[in-house]
Each structure stands twice: as structure tokens, then as C-alpha cells.
Amino acid sequence: MEERFRAARTRFEERDPDGAIATVSRFRDRGVKDYYKAKAGTLSKDATSVANALLEETDQLASITGVVPLRGLKGVRGSSALANMGDGVIGLKGKSISALAEKAIKGKVGDADIPLIKSRIATLEADEVKLLRDGEKQFGDWDTAFEKYVAIGTRDGFNATDAEAYKEWRNSVHSLRTALNRERQRLKAVSVQPADTWKFGDNPLDRPYNSDSFFSDPLDKLRSIFYHEFGHNVHQQYLVDDLVSYRNPAIEKWMRANARQGSRKSATRYGDTNQREWFAENFSLYFMDREDLVDPLFIRLIEAIINKRALPDG
Question: Which burial class, exposed, middle or buried, applies to 10 when counting CB atoms under 10 A from its CB (0-12, 13-18, 19+)?
Fold first, then answer.
């Protein structure tokens, strides 16, 4: 993966021969330390393989749109987002992306596992019911038992033997629930969610939050995420060749004038967040062959970019 990013160095150096742009960053969590490196973090082997394949596709999108390719990958922490983008470096939340990649690569195995996982869940749920019923018979309801055997400490009426038995039972409940939650998460990881069927003309309140919701195939969901992030790379890097254009990119300047709230539309609620997310969500859907879900304003914009024409007048 790092070889791919090192190969991108030439493109960046051609557009910035004196290195002026490389010394600054518009993004607080990006910098020289991230360039031309792949810091996969918690990405699984499967996820790394899928990411490599999708990065080949984003290289093609770079050629189509005339922007520099991506030049780095890093882990994302402390964010609800699965991915982000800045300075040609894509950030990925390793565990979440890895779960999707496992679905994409091992989908058939996962489908075969579903009945087994459901059976284990049913068994654990039955064990939970029995364990709670037995505990209630022996110790009383959960809150009363906690007060009696834990909270009162060594006060009058405290029975150390009963307290130990209660704690052992309570630990058994926690262990069982941990196992049950793990199986429920496994079921969620291997289950394929149906694609959202919302379309323009339907109630806007019923729109999905993200564009990946329009796809059921796990690989297409990942592809949608990568395309969304590469869309950010396009509005950040298109026609950038010096510090002035880096700080005020042509597309972002165009969006401030032509894609204000009320004059743009999005098939997702996330696309309503701001002009940059409007661009990225529409970019993803456009290149995922869902032009029926793309804002006509965006279509005019992206086709001008692809065909190297002047950006449209709104």
C-alpha cells in the first residue's frame, strides 16, 4: 500500500515544485508525517486487502477528475465517522471498516453462519431467563439483592456467605450477557441489510443518513464510503497549484456562490450538513451509477470537471 502512496509523490511534487504547499495544512489532524505512508492501525488483513483494491479505483477517479491521487492512509479515533479526508490522506476507523470488509470477503461463509449464530443467541437468551429466575428465587429482585448483599457492607443483617453467592451469581449474569451481546454483534456483522429505496419525490424526512444505505452489498457499501472520501479530495485539490488556491480551492469557492442551502439538494440527510458533504455524497452516488439520486446541479458541476470545462454558473 505504501508503494502506491510513494508513487503519488511525483504528482504532488509536480504541482508544488518549491514545496510551499507541503509545509502547511488546512486540517488539524493532517501533516507531513502522514504523507506517503499507510498507518493501517486496527485494519484487519481482509480490510487492508479491500482497501488496496478500492484505492486502485480512487486512482482511476483521480485520473478522470484531474486531481492528485491519495497519498496516505491513517487510523481514525474518537469520531463517529467511519472515515475522513484531508490533504490527500484518507482516515479510516479500523474496527468498523474491518467488519464491513469481513462481510464483503466472507459473505457466503457469513450467510452460512447465520443459523448457527441465531441458535447460540436463542440458547443464551434461554440461559439468561433461567439464571435471572433462579437468582430472583434465591436473592430477590436485582435492586433489592444489590442493596442487601453489596451496598450494606458489614452492617447488621449482612451475611458474608450469601453475599459471596450473590456476587458469583451476579458475575455469571454479566458474563452471560457479554457473550449474548457478542453473538448479537456477530449476527449484525454477517447480516446484509437491504438497500434503502428512497427516491426524489418521496418524503425528505424518510431519506437515509448516508449514501452507503442505498447499497446492500457490503463491498458496495465500502466502495461508497471510499468514493465519498475521494469526493472530498476532489473539492480540496481540484486546480490547486499554489498556496492561494490550496487555501481557497476553486470548487469550494464555486460552492459558496452556487450551492447554498435552498439551491442544492441531496438524497441523504448527511448531504444537507454543508456544501462539502453535499459534494461528497453526490460524488459517491454519481460514480456508483446512481445518477437518479444525484442533484442536477452537481451533475452539471462534475461533468464540467470531467470534461475540463469552466465551472457552470449555478
Answer: exposed
Q: Are 83 and 90 in contact (CB under 8 A)?
A: yes
Residue of 232, 228, 255, 237 whose CA lies nearest to 54: 228
Q: Are strands 72-75 and 83-86 parallel, antiparallel or unpaired?
A: unpaired
86 contacts 92 by C-beta, under 8 angstroms: no
Cα–Cα distance between 234 and 212 in angstroms, integer? Answer: 19
Which H helix or E strand runs over 74?
A: strand 72-75
Alpha-helical (H) ranges within the chain are 2-15, 45-65, 94-105, 107-139, 142-146, 160-190, 218-237, 243-247, 250-258, 275-287, 296-306
Beta bridge partner(s), residue 75: 92
- What digits encode the pLDDT tens for the residues 47-57? 999 999 999 99
For 7-21, 157-171, 250-264, which range has the lowest pLDDT when averaged over its residues? 157-171
| Short-list 254, 283, 287, CA closest to 271 | 283
Q: Output the nine-digit C-alpha cell for 235.
A: 473539492
Span 134-160, mean pLDDT? Answer: 65
Q: Which residues of 233-263 are buried (b: 16+ CB within 10 A; e: fewer)?
A: bbbbbbebeeeebbeebebbebbeebbeeee
> How many other β-carbons are positioned within 10 Å of the β-carbon of residue 136?
13
Looking at residue 24, the DSSP 8-state letter turns out to be -
Find how far residue 41's CA is from the centre of its chain: 15
Q: Helix axis angle, 160-190 relative to 94-105, nearest 10°?
A: 60
Q: Of 43, 65, 135, 18, whose CA–CA distance to 286 is shortest?
A: 65
* Separation CA 243–CA 100 (nearest Å): 38
